[in-house]
Design a protein that fits this description.
By secondary structure, this protein is mostly helical. The protein has a domain of about 100 residues. It is about 70% helix and about 0% strand. Helix 3 packs antiparallel against helix 4. The longest helix is centred in the middle third of the chain and has 35 residues.
Length: about 150
């Protein structure tokens, strides 16, 4: 096992700094290639998970907004705006994720989680919330609230 590979097991941040310096110095033969590949793949997964997490929060608050009109608060509106901003930031930083955001399977997976969370948080029966997401992608991105 290379020293850099051993460092990966002990301290990932220090390992990343060592490998970044090796790259800067063009010392490619000393790089921990296997862990570099894994970390690069994980970066993509992490970005997709972040996008899904922001989408879950957005959908949950839109469901609460729609199904509990008497309890609408500025806090919910702020959560919706923050989730939209986070989605926008993620898509701006990683434009290759834009098709994911428009993918119905991706949205439905996030919606399923949001639906369950909305039922738990509101105390409403799960059946109150539509089984499938009926919000359009442009509505999710726009300054729009369901009635």
């Amino acid at each position: 096992m290379q020293p850099s590979s051993q460092l990966y097991e002990a301290d990932t941040v220090a390992w990343a700094e060592v490998n970044a310096n090796l790259l800067r110095q063009h010392r490619f033969d000393e790089l921990d290639i296997q862990h570099l590949i894994e970390e690069l793949e994980d970066m993509g997964k992490s970005e997709r998970r972040a996008l899904e997490s922001h989408l879950v929060v957005l959908l949950m608050h839109l469901l609460k907004w729609q199904h509990q009109p008497g309890l609408r608060t500025t806090s919910w509106k702020l959560s919706i705006a923050n989730a939209r901003q986070s989605i926008g930031d993620t898509l701006q930083d990683s434009p290759s994720l834009t098709p994911k955001f428009a993918d119905s399977e991706f949205v439905e997976r996030a919606y399923s989680k949001a639906r369950r969370l909305a039922a738990i948080e509101t105390g409403l029966d799960l059946s109150i919330f539509p089984e499938h997401c009926h919000y359009m992608t442009d509505q999710l991105q726009a300054d729009w609230l369901p009635s």
